[in-house]
Each structure stands twice: as C-alpha cells, then as structure tokens.
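Technical annex, item 7. During the second reporting period the consortium partners agreed on a shared format for inverse folding records so that results from different sites could be compared directly. Each record opens with the tokenized structure and is followed by the designed sequence. A conforming record, contributed by the partner at site C, is shown below for reference.
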C-alpha cells in the first residue's frame, strides 16, 4: 500500500477525531461559563465558608464590628458612671433638704416657746394695775381708744392701699390721733393684707409718741401675733422693749430684746437691743 493510499484511507478517521475533540472542548467551555449547565451536571456549588469554619462555632465579627462593640461598651460604662454620680448628688441634696427642714422645725419650736413665754408675761402685766408713765399724771390703761375730741370718718369704699397711705400721711404730718384712728380702721378692715404688718407697727409708734406705752405694747404684740416672721417683727420686738421699759417692766423688756437678738442677730436693731440690755436696770 502506497503512502498516498494510506493517507487517503486515514483522512476520514482524522476528521472524525478532530470533530470529536472539538465538540468535547466546546462542551467543556460552555459548562465552565454557563452556571446552569454546571448546576445541571455537577449540582449546586457549595456556599463559601464563613469565618467560623468549625461546625457549630459562632460567626466571628469583623474588625469594624468589634470596634463598634467596644465603643458601645465604653459608652455604657460612662452612662453608668454618670448615673451613679447623679444619684449621689440627688441623695446629698435630699440629705441637705432634710437637715434644713429639721433646723426650721427646731427654730419654729424655739420661737413658739419664747413667744409664748413673752405672751404669758404680758398677760400677767395686763392683769396688774399700770403705774403711770413718767410725766403723765393719769394712769395708763391697756385699753386703747381714739380720743373723744377727734371725730374721724373713714369712707366705706376706700381701697386698702389708699386707706394705708392716708393713715401714713397723718403719721408723717405728726397728726397722731388721726393716724391712730385710720391705722385702727385699716387693721379692722384688712387684718391679713400685706400692709397690715406695717400698720400694726405704726399704730404702736403712734401710741408710743402719744405717751401711751401700754397701748403701744398691745399694738406691737398684735403685730407679732399676726405676722410672727413679718418684715416688721424685729421693729415690733425692739419698740415693745422700749414701751415695756417705760412701763417699769425691765424683765419683760429684757425678754423682748433677748428674743430680738437671738432671732435676728444680723439685723441692725440687734446691736441697739444689746446696748439697751447692757444699760437695763433689773
């Protein structure tokens, strides 16, 4: 058999072999590109393993997640510390408030005890005949009335402020009888008005300058009863002591001034009361 004859016979087989190889390569290439063919021939591809390769082990967080958790933990610790500090501040405030409340109760009890003692002594004073004040031939009576020679009519529809201002105007004009009548009327009509604290004091002053210390004591005492912690309480105590001293009652005068010094130690009248106490003849 010649070489030409052999090539002629082998050529169809070579063509068949090339076609088969080509078909096989094409099929493999399509299988690599097309996932559907791979899934069909090989089944679904396995999922990519997570960072927890062991079976049942928890998934490890990423670096960013770890940092976030650390920041959250730090912030929670700060909030807990702030809450503890605030709770401590609240407890300290509550303790201070309770201490202040106890102190106020103690002061109030002490004030009531000493005021009641002064009241008791004044009641004893009123039950005794009054000695005449120096330079006054008539006996001093604790009852206070407007002099019969003064006829005063206070309008019925006048306001509290106008009534008080009118009474004070009489006082500054040294018209003490008129001032006393208007102040009495003011207290009668408006006993709880804010100006009544002043009205009691000025009523006592008007009686004191009219040489009526017993009536002055009554007005100052009534002012302390109505406004025990009022603005005029120190003034009422001081002038009450002055009136009691005029009534030859040094022990009662001392009680009034002692109360003033103890209850209002920073008030300017406390120094004047101390001076009066130093010169008081018991």
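Designed sequence (site C submission):
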């Amino acid at each position: 058999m010649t070489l030409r004859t052999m090539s002629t016979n082998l050529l169809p087989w070579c063509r068949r072999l090339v076609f088969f190889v080509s078909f096989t390569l094409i099929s493999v290439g399509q299988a690599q590109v097309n996932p559907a063919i791979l899934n069909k021939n090989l089944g679904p591809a396995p999922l990519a393993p997570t960072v927890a390769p062991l079976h049942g082990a928890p998934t490890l967080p990423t670096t960013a997640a770890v940092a976030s958790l650390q920041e959250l933990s730090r912030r929670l610790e700060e909030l807990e510390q702030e809450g503890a500090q605030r709770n401590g501040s609240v407890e300290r405030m509550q303790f201070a408030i309770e201490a202040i409340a106890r102190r106020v109760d103690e002061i109030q009890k002490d004030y009531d005890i000493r005021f009641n003692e002064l009241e008791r002594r004044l009641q004893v004073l009123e039950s005794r005949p009054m000695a005449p004040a120096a330079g006054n031939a008539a006996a001093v009576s604790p009852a206070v009335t407007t002099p019969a020679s003064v006829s005063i009519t206070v309008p019925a529809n006048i306001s509290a402020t106008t009534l008080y201002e009118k009474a004070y105007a009489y006082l500054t004009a040294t018209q003490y009888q008129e001032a006393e009548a208007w102040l009495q009327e003011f207290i009668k009509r408006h006993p709880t008005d804010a100006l009544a604290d002043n009205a009691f004091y000025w009523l006592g002053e008007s009686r004191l300058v009219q040489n009526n210390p017993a009536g002055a004591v009554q007005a100052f005492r009534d002012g302390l009863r109505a406004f025990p912690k009022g603005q005029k309480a120190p003034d009422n105590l001081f002038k009450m002591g002055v009136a009691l001293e005029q009534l030859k009652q040094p022990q009662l005068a001392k009680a009034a001034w002692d109360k003033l010094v103890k209850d209002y130690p920073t008030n300017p009248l406390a120094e004047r009361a101390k001076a009066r106490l130093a010169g008081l003849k018991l």
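The chain is about 70% helix and 0% strand. Residues 2-8, 21-26, 28-33, 129-149 have pLDDT under 50 and may be disordered. All partners now use this format for quarterly exchanges.
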